[in-house]
Amino acid sequence: MINGDINEFIDKLWSGEELIYVYNGKKYFSQGYLREDKVYVFELQLWEPEVKTLWQISGKDNQESYEIFLNQPLFDGKTFWEIEKDTEWVDD
Amino acid sequence: MGGRGTFAAGNPVPYTYEVDTNFSADGKYKGVKVLKGMEGTGKHGLPESSHSSTAYLKMNPDGTFNMMRVYDSNHNLRLEIAYHVEDQLGTGKVLHYHTYGTSFSQLSKGKPDRTVGVVIHKNSGIYKKYKKFFKGVSL
User: Does B128 touch chain A (CB under 8 A)?
Assistant: First the structure.
């Protein structure tokens, strides 16, 4: 991971904190939260070049959501672990 | 995973953030400490639990508001206010908040408890209480 500690990043990913990161010129945002009905939602949004929700999972707990997310080819056909070394953690 | 040691849990946790003095000599904005991750620590955002303050601010490089976190008397994170793009909340940057259960700062005691984002409107109590910190925010 560029400009960040991967262990810290993964810890925040697991607990649903907001994360902003850039891979291959695209800016991504991910977070997890409990809806009003207490269902946990984890989502990945694209922020640049356009804003849209790329992927979302609900009904699983944070651990399951996190594990499923890490195995999805969401980043130009690659999984997070495949892009991690070329991904920059940014603040905004 | 997620078993971070926290000050809220009574653990000795070293400082990995430092006061951001880019905006004022005392590192405060309207009386609240502005923090940034210490060089080389890989820290972003604001801490999951507080040391001595009940709130911290994160500012953008141009001095505008980015994020505020509010903690309870036991150092647990309870409220996060942020201003950024978020699909599903609106168009462009949106001022919004998330609340946190006490277990978030003490994950050994439970699962993360972070609520869905809620848009902050000008007539809301949260806006009236914290608006002095929202430099550069437009609603």
Answer: no
Asked whether residue A1 is domain-assigned, the answer is: no
> Total structural domains in chain A?
1
Cα distance between residue A33 and residue B114, in whole Å:
5
Domains: count for chain B: 1
Angle between helices A62-70 and A6-15 (to 10 degrees): 130
> Best of A9, A11, A18 to disrupt the B interface by mutation (most B CBs within 10 Å)?
A18
Q: Is the CB of B114 less than 8 angstroms away from the CB of A45?
A: no
The rounded Cα A47 to chain-centroid distance in angstroms is 12
Residue B14 has pLDDT above 90, yes or no: no
ipTM of the complex: 0.93
On chain A, the residues whose CB falls within 8 A of the CB of B117 are 33
Residue to mutate among B17, B20, B38, B44, with most A CBs inside 10 A, is B44
Query: How do residues A47-82 score in pLDDT, each as one tens digit?
Result: 999 999 999 999 999 999 999 999 999 999 999 999
Taking the model in full, what pTM does it have? 0.90
Whether residue B1 lies inside any domain: the answer is: no
Question: How far apart are alpha carbons A55 and A43 in whole angstroms?
Answer: 6
pLDDT in tens, B95-118: 999 999 988 888 666 678 999 999
Segments forming the whole domain that contains residue A55:
6-90
